[in-house]
Every structure is written in C-alpha cells, then in structure tokens.
Amino acid sequence: MKHIKILGAGCRNCETTAKLIAIAAEQAGVEIELEKVTDMAKIIEFGVMSTPGVVIDGEVVHAGGLPGPDLVRQWVLD
Hints:
31% of the residues are buried. By secondary structure, this protein is an alpha+beta fold. The protein has a single domain, classed as Glutaredoxin (3-Layer(aba) Sandwich), CATH 3.40.30. Helix content is 41%, strand content 27%. Helix 1 packs across helix 3 (69-77). It has a four-stranded mixed sheet with strand order 2-1-3-4.
C-alpha cells in the first residue's frame, strides 16, 4: 500500500490533486492511504514552499500547481 500525503491549506488545487490521485488509484486497482496535511509547519518540514505538494512513501514528488494525469498515474503505478 502506498502512503500519499497532499500538502496544502485546502485550496481548490489541493482538493483537485487529492481527487485525481484517488481516481487514478481506483482505476488502477491500487490500494493507497491518502492523507491531507494542512499544518504549514509540517508542510515546511518537507521543504515544500508551493502547494499543493505530494509526498509518496516519505518522498516529495511534486510541489506547486496541478499535476498532469499522466504524472498522477505514474505515481500510483510505480
């Protein structure tokens, strides 16, 4: 199971990123644990200065702006 964190204050892009990841995981049949992190101190601990940020299994894979669908599918499948 992949542990995925969405880093952000809950803005529209953060919510959309979370939905994109959930949909991609469901379509791929991959089980994930999706967590939203809104505490700015914790977000900064990851070194993310631009949200939404995406952390997969402890590694920051994205920061700032909406990720493209191909990238999201790659995260879920890798």
